[in-house]
Amino acid sequence: MTVGRRIALLLGGCLVLGFGVALLLTADLGSDGYTMLVHGVSLASGLPFWVANIVTAIAFVVLAAVRRLRPGPGTIVQIVLVGVVVTLLLKVLSTPDSLVARGALLAGALLVLATGIALYLGSHTGAGPAEAVGLAWDPPIPFKWSYSAVQFGGALVGWILGATLGVGTIAVILLLGPTVDLVSRRLRLDVHQARLAHAPGTQPQD
């Protein structure tokens, strides 16, 4: 893969992902599990949301690194660019009054989210925090299920810490991982990222 294509996949994927996150939040039916976790950490600690987001992101990247999943420039670009896109779009998007319209927004958000994740991971430049932890456990657990487990764990801890659970959160937990898998196969993109090599004389821990 050429450098130009990798950059295009990374930037384009993050833009699409940011649009998907903005749609999900605009639907106002519940956020993804990772965002719930950040919100819960913010509520429990008193930290501003953006500080809690940085702390949680670092913890997730370190956790993935323990499983030898190497961060990369895409890790930073994903965190920054998606955040900027979401911030800008939420200033112009508004939540519909109709529950049907909000449900349609949620359904569209899931497909857009999955497409964005597949594109930016397909650049092989590094995974964002939530995706990194999911990929760190593949193998032995396929990403479509390990990612669902990450979203479920984030939602559970976030709920315990005081964040609100919604139907959108449940939809993300159940459907986003398999949808990313489907979209990546349709686009012929490999979402797996580079791993750190084992030190000489050590055995794999997978």
Mind explaining what this structure looks like?
This protein is an all-alpha fold and 206 residues long. The chain contains 8 helices and no strands.
Strand content: under 5%
Return residue spans where pLDDT drops below 50 for at least 5 consecutive residues. 202-206
In DSSP terms (H or I, runs of 4 or more residues), the helix count works out at 8
**Separation of the first and last Cα atoms:** 28 Å
> What is the radius of gyration computed over CA atoms, rounded to a whole number of angstroms?
17 Å
Tell me the overall shape. Answer: globular
Structural class: mainly alpha
Mean pLDDT: 93
List the helices and strands and how they pair.
Elements: H1 3-27, H2 33-45, H3 49-66, H4 73-90, H5 99-121, H6 129-136, H7 143-160, H8 167-186
Helix pairs in contact: 1-4, 1-5, 2-3, 2-7, 3-6, 5-8, 6-7, 7-8
